[in-house]
């Protein structure tokens, strides 16, 4: 049996090429795969561990494990299995590495969490079967443009007097932690008690704030003095095979303030080296009106496009102990 041939190996920086060879990144998420660009940043973060399923000297599977929620939850992401061994249960085998009497079991970890596309992942079916519990559902839309076009539009908008001030500002992890912990703001920003950033579902607790803010993260907030009108936005970016991807999450009241938020995110984003093609991945709470966001993105000459699904679902399951 193939199970008897596979061993679990901790991945190091020197294994980069072996990981990339497991499955062509250009064929993952329609070319939107973040792992080639994120690999070295993620492996240096203290709450991330990478593991490979190995047969002989060959990497045939990979999973990234991110510890969150005061070490009570592990989030798996960026998983992949080689085409040669597809359909042989390797993905499920790697998940069981976290259960009791398995190589990655930790008694303090209670939950396995993950996030998936409602169109392209099996998570909706696994929820229906009772294997996972749904903890958050989000809407997902894609928009694209060219770097030169975005830079020109950004310069025109920033230099005009049309952009009213709603006192939006970039914040650090300390302020983010205070907002997450605020009993006044949580019911409006995080009613499900979850916050997703960079495709990691975090519990809405203060201790997660330093984990949410990485080198690639920008967090913007506005209208903090009025919780019902507060808007919190989080962006991350990576160079994918298809081009530069900008991940943009919004929480709270989306209104005219979205223009100032997006402008602040673009001010950080445009200073980075990137390819000419830009894909914006916009994520909002399920049922949020897209009117203001779409109107703002149109001003920056982003066009709506179909890319990889229309929704995201975050789930968790109790680990076997």
From TrEMBL:
Residues 173-271 form the Histidine N-acetyltransferase C-terminal domain. It comes from the Eukaryota. InterPro entries: Acyl_CoA_acyltransferase, Hisat_C. Pfam families: Hisat_C. Transmembrane segments: none annotated. This is Histidine N-acetyltransferase C-terminal domain-containing protein. It comes from Mytilus galloprovincialis (Mediterranean mussel). The lineage of its organism: Eukaryota, Metazoa, Spiralia, Lophotrochozoa, Mollusca.
């Amino acid at each position: 049996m193939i199970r008897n041939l596979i061993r679990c190996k901790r991945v190091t920086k020197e294994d980069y090429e072996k990981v990339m060879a497991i499955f062509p990144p250009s064929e993952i998420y329609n070319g939107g795969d973040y792992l080639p660009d994120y690999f070295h940043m993620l492996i240096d973060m203290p709450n991330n561990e990478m593991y490979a399923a190995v047969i002989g000297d060959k990497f045939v599977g990979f999973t990234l494990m991110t510890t969150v929620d005061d070490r009570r939850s592990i989030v798996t992401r960026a998983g992949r299995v080689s085409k040669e061994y597809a359909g042989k249960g390797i993905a499920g085998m790697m998940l069981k590495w976290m259960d009791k009497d398995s190589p990655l079991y930790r008694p303090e970890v209670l939950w396995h969490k993950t996030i998936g596309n409602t169109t392209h992942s099996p998570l909706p079916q696994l929820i229906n079967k009772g294997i996972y519990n749904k903890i958050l559902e989000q809407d997902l839309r894609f928009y694209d443009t060219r770097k030169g076009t975005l830079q020109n539009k950004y310069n025109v908008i920033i230099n005009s007097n049309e952009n009213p001030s709603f006192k939006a500002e970039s914040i650090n992890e300390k302020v983010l932690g205070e907002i997450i912990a605020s009993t006044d703001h949580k019911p409006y920003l995080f009613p499900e008690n979850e916050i997703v950033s960079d495709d990691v579902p975090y519990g809405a607790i203060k201790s997660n704030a330093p984990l949410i803010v990485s080198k690639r993260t920008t967090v913007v907030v506005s209208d903090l003095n009025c919780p019902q009108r507060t808007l919190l936005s989080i962006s991350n970016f990576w160079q994918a095979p298809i081009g530069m991807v900008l991940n943009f999450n919004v929480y709270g009241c989306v209104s005219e303030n979205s223009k100032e938020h997006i402008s602040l995110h673009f001010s950080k984003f445009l200073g980075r080296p990137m390819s000419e093609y830009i894909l914006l991945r916009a994520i909002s709470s399920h049922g949020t009106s897209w009117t203001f966001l779409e109107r703002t993105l149109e001003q920056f000459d982003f066009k709506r496009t179909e890319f990889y699904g229309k929704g995201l679902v975050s789930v968790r399951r109790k680990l076997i102990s």
